[in-house]
Amino acid sequence: MRKTAWSPGFWACFFGCGLILAIAIPAFNLLVPPNSPAALPDYLVPLLGKYLCYALLALSLDLIWGYAGILSLGQGAFFALGGYCVGMYLMRQIGARGVYGNPLLPDFMVFLNWQQLPWFWWGFDHFAWAAAMVVLVPGLLALVFGWLAFRSRVTGVYLSIITQAMTYALMLAFFRNDMGFGGNNGMTDYKDLLGWDVHQPSTRLGLYLASVVALGLGYLLCRFITASKLGRVLLALRDAESRVRFLGYSVTNAKLFVFTISAILAGIAGALYVPQVGIINPSEFSPGNSIEVAIWVSVGGRGTLSGAVVGAILVNAAKTWLTGAAPETWLFVLGALFVLTTLVFPHGMVGLLRRARWIRPRAPAPVPAGEQA
């Protein structure tokens, strides 16, 4: 069978070249003077890093929605939880340099007359503990929530509704001042990360490169899962769950595994996002954010992985431009994208490329001479 341009090898080469360019272009800033016309503006590197975090978030949704048929509208919750874990670490690093000069309590706790640090803040003065919580907190929430939902055979739109309800409940909880997470204002005014000033261009470049590496590793992990036997089981679950269960496969375990992995990827995306944007607050839990992630995946191409990455970057780049040029039109454009991806090109940009035959179709297998008519 002839190897086609749509093969895994093609995409491995494509993304390998893309990662090299993503690393080389911002790193070029280290080789040119800051006032050189060839140097990238300081604001552009964290902006690109934010897009890559969104791409990893979209990749996490595509893993479960595109391949297992699980439309989770709670990815924003896992994203925000990962961000809060890093935000807590960054707040502990401020120490006595805060507005109130308290070495033990963050400024918002001093303002709210907290007398001591809550128990769930213990350990967040160490980066290793915060990094472990970035993985464990979203992962454990997804494990417990998924076990209860999948064991009860909650599927389809009902699962989407309860994941959205979970996200909304967390948003309301984190808005409360007595929760100990900064309330409505959230956490901001970060100073340094691992001893590096988060406002310095070199630190921002390091965070961008970390986002590039995380996206690349996340893509390879998702590609490994979807290309394995488990990936074929997930596709069967998406198309005919009852038949897969009848054949003796553990539907609950398969769904639970990819749902937990997806939550961990979303948490890592949130952890990389927070130091680059400089703030985390309960608005990240907004159900509308999770719906936007679904639109990114739909625009790029559900069930393709690469389409989710491209869709997230392109839609957010358009959002950045439109909210500056014509801010009142963005919501209409977003709604139009949702309608178009539903009615006109349900397979996204990847589907359009396939339909236009910009990518060569897979050649049929040759028929043996004895079987020819």
Which descriptors would you attach to this protein?
single chain; disordered C terminus; 4 strands; 373 residues; mainly alpha; two-stranded antiparallel ribbon; 65% helix; 13 helices
Characterise this structure.
This protein has a domain at 44-285. It contains 13 helices and 4 strands. The protein has helices spanning 8-27, 44-68, 75-94, 107-111, 127-151, 156-175, 201-227, 229-246, 251-277, 287-300, 306-325, 330-343, 348-355, and strands at 187-188, 192-193, 196-197, 279-280. The strands form 2 sheets. The protein has a two-stranded antiparallel sheet with strand order 1-4. A hairpin with a 2-residue loop joins strand 2 and strand 3 (196-197). Helix 2 runs parallel beside helix 7 (201-227) and helix 10 packs across helix 12 (330-343).
Secondary structural class: mainly alpha
pLDDT average, as an integer? 85
Tell how many strands the DSSP assignment holds: 4
User: How many distinct helices?
Assistant: 13
Strand coverage percent: under 5%
Task: Tell me the overall shape.
Answer: globular
The low-confidence runs, each spanning 5 or more residues with pLDDT under 50, are 1-6, 361-373
**SSE order:** HHHHHHEEEHHHEHHHH
Task: Please estimate the helix content.
Answer: 55-70%
End-to-end separation: 21 Å
Strand order of the largest sheet: 1-4
The major pleated sheet works out as: 2 strands, antiparallel
Radius of gyration computed on alpha carbons: 22 Å
